[in-house]
Amino acid sequence: MALKIVKGSIDRMFDKNLQDLVRGIRNHKEDEAKYISTCIDEIKQELKQDNIAVKANAVCKLTYLQMLGYDVSWAAFNIVEVMSSSKFTYKVSCSQLQLQSVDAVLITTIINSVSLPLVTQDLSSPNQYDTGVALTGLSCFVTPDLARDLASDIMTLMSHTKPYIRKKAVLIMYKVFLKYPESLRPAFPRLKEKLEDPDPGVQSAAVNVICELARRNPKNYLSLAPLFFKLMTSSTNNWVLIKIIKLFGALTPLEPRLGKKLIEPLTNLIHRALDLLYGMVSKKNLMEIVKKLMLHVDKAEGTTYRDELLTKIIDICSQSNYQYITNFEWYISILVELTRLEGTRHGHLIASQMLDVAIRVKAIRVFAVAQMATLLDNGHLLTGNMQRNGICEVLYAAAWICGEFSEHLEDPMQTLEAMLRPKVATLPGHIQAVYVQNAAKLFATVLRKQEGTTDSLAAQETSQLLIDRLPLFVQSANLEVQERASCILQLVKYIQKLQQKEVEVAEEVTALFAGELNPVAPKAQKKVPVPDGLDLDAWINEPPSESESEDEKPKAIFTKEEPKHTRPRHTEVDEKELARRREARKQEQANNPFYIKTSPSSQKVHYLKLEEERRQKERSERKKKEKKKKREKHGRGRRADSGPESEEDITPAHHVDIVTEEMPENALPSDDDDKDPNDPHKALDIDLDKYV
To answer: Where in the sequence does UniProt note compositional bias of the Acidic residues kind (predicted)?
Structure first.
């Protein structure tokens, strides 16, 4: 007997375990079916042995093969035999196998002979994990007879002291209901109690079971609507919320009043989901996320929700300086598609994004100009929404981009005519002003092209076009539109006179708009360095002395003082008299024992000295901080250069060069201005290395 045990232990050393099976399948991709067939033959031989450990190892491999789609019903009796073992790990391996496809006569025989006594024994085990394994395994091979015999025991476990057992008992009851529907009526009160269970896992299990039951017959669960509404407004479990929403979707046709109650909580859930999207975005999934959001934008019925989606799309795409965008042509197309939304109040936001991308991403300007020219040609479709921040604000960006980057236009003359249409006069004043200003830029581009050809009359016709169309803008009620139109009209009239004399003026007109307009950093003004020799802390005018401030009396500016009859008006006193009175007053104060004497130096002079010392100290501390931050920045730069590359390094569709915001020359490198003086965490900025 001892030799037999030793021999079995030695044989086990050379048996294939689950890890060997998985590794072998991966190494035999070309003849996987043949290899698995060989493994199944080996498993059949292992199941014939008397050693329970060998059988348990074989069952583990059968579990993996069943996951791959292979039939393991031929080993049903051996699986139940291993499940009868007292060792917990063996039971766990068997509990994962599905035996629903086993022949009904065979499974009934197995259950009556082995399973029912074993499951009953484990359900009453003091070890909660043995009970849990029994419940898990029961869900895989439960039959109508087994459900009928064990329904009362499982209902008792629904009130177990351990949440682990209660959760599994609630979940297995759904399988019991399917096999033995008569158990639903006595089990329903306890199932309803589990919806208010203090353990969130048990509560989630009860919600899942009731939601699955409600799919078959939602009318039976209409009475639970108040309880589910309470759960939806108080629970933080996203999975539970999804299940409850599905349940309400089935109950709302039966009780229409539920729809009104669901508006606010559903809106909050949608906003939470949109907020989560902001942190989920990457270069790989950005386009897919925006595509899904655009579908919701098209289906949205209310303008508020649609505007919320629009804002979220732009926030997601523009976050971190367009970090996740690899194809800016796609982003421009998305912005143009958003202009087709009716009733939106975020036209200014779309326009600002168009301007920002066209200015800062040079590689996209050709595509952006073509799209903006199309918007200007179809501008009459966007002028219907004239409200504040309406979609007509997009025409502001379109006109500016076509004018500033007019060299990329295929047909600048057509765009110029579109910008001078009479319908433009109905747009808001600030948009008309941009139209007029950029029409002048387009005029310069058209002149340069026309003067390069042999047709000299074309340039004069273009000038005449502006002379005919601009008077409409000169009569505008907006002062800025009037001023710009008047100046440009006079300039064009002068150019027309020169053209009649056959003088080429294209170069001079183009020079008026030479140079690029790059974005300026918001804090550029604060970063302007102080010129040498300028002391901003010095007094511009010396403060008046104490005596002069006391003697001088402020004169009334807006009121006339009425003369007092009791006292005659005094005449102005000369400097000598003032000095004499001042000395007399000081002498009187010095001889008065009840007067508190001041220090020999004047209080004002003393204050000035203290103020000067304080400012010098602040300047020295500021210089020390600047030097320290310079050293830290250089150190961080060296460390960043040596770091690993991003795992999400996706090649962009074309070379992208984002123009940085302009700063003044010799700008200060200090970031002191970026710090919030009201930051509550500023008090924690303590040097822990200093001695107490």
So the answer is: 659-676
Helix 263-280 and helix 286-299, axial crossing angle in degrees, nearest 10: 160
User: What's the alpha-carbon Rg for the chain, to the nearest Å?
Assistant: 43
Question: Structure tokens of 103?
Answer: 């022949």
Tell the residue number behind the tokens 């309880």, with chain if given.
227
Helix (H, G, I), strand (E, B) or coil at 669: coil
Q: Alpha carbon of 468 to those of 113, 292, 420, 471: distances in Å?
A: 103, 48, 10, 7
DSSP letter (8 states) at residue 158 = T
Contact 504, 511 (CB under 8 A): no
Query: Residue length, the chain?
Result: 692
CB 345 within 8 A of CB 310: no
Q: How far is CA 342 from CA 222, 355, 426, 604, in A?
A: 39, 21, 18, 67
Tens of pLDDT, residues 571-588: 556 777 778 887 887 777
The confidence score (pLDDT) of residue 416 equals: 92
Q: Which of 80, 72, 61, 66 has the alpha carbon at shortest distance from 19? A: 61
d(CA 59, CA 142): 19
pLDDT digits (tens, 9 = 90+) for 513-535: 888 777 777 777 777 888 888 88
pLDDT in tens, 641-667: 444 445 445 666 655 666 667 777 766
Sign of the dihedral through C-alpha 233, 235, 239, 243: negative
Rounded CA-CA distance 42/21 in Å is 11
Report the alpha-carbon distance of residue 289 to residue 299 in Å, rounded: 16
For the chain, the straight-line distance linking the first and the last C-alpha, in angstroms and rounded, comes to 76
Token pair, residue 419, equals: 């910008």
- How far apart CA 291 and CA 449 sit, in angstroms, is 41
- Cα distance between residue 383 and residue 339, in whole Å: 12
**Which DSSP string do the residues of 451-473 spell out, in sequence order?**
HTSS-SHHHHHHHHHHHHHTHHH
Torsion sign (Cα): 464, 468, 470, 474: positive
Strands of 91-150, DSSP E: none
**Rounded distance, CA 230 to CA 234, Å?**
6
Residue 168, judged by CB atoms within 10 A of its CB (0-12, 13-18, 19+), counts as: buried
Q: Which residue has the tokens 């367009």?
A: 322
If phi > 0 it is left, if psi is from -120 to 50 it is alpha, else beta; for residue 334 that is alpha
**CB atoms near residue 29 (< 10 Å):** 8
Write the DSSP symbol of residue 571: P
pLDDT digits (tens, 9 = 90+) for 81-97: 777 677 777 777 666 66
Residue 456's φ and ψ, nearest 5 degrees, are -80, -20
Q: Are 40 and 75 in contact (CB under 8 A)?
A: no
| Interval 14-22 mean pLDDT | 81
How distant, in Å, are the alpha carbons of 269, 631, 688 from that of 636?
Answer: 41, 9, 21
Whether 439 and 490 have beta carbons less than 8 Å apart is answered as no
Residue 657 C-alpha from the chain's centroid:
24
Q: Which two tokens stand for residue 267?
A: 């809106």
Establish how many alpha carbons lie within 13 A of residue 131's alpha carbon, considering only the half-sphere containing its beta carbon.
21
Topology of the domain comprising 142-261: Leucine-rich Repeat Variant (1.25.10)
**Nearest-angstrom CA–CA distance, 242 and 238:** 6
